[in-house]
Amino acid sequence: MTRLNLVLLLAVLASALYLVDVQYESRRLFAEIDRANAEARRLSAENERLQVEKRAQATPSRVEKLAKEQLRMKSSTPAITHYVTYAAGASPTGDASSVRSNPESVGRVQ
Known about the structure:
Elements: H1 2-57, H2 60-69
């Protein structure tokens, strides 16, 4: 009988230690999930902020302002527009005599 009691006591102690270990692991995993959820919320808020900033950066007025200031681009007007004409008898490779020359419009085609 004493042997049986000793075996049962060891089984109860082993199961108690296992239960403590499982509870500790469960709490640790719950804290990790909570940290991951907080990080996901933070990243979602940052993504939304960046999307708003991206939309603000791509407004047509801002793009036009940057094109004028930094790239020194001008709006297209008939005075600086370079028209390319194609004569029916000219070769399709580009005949220099069929193009009107304007020094400000080099490289522009409308």
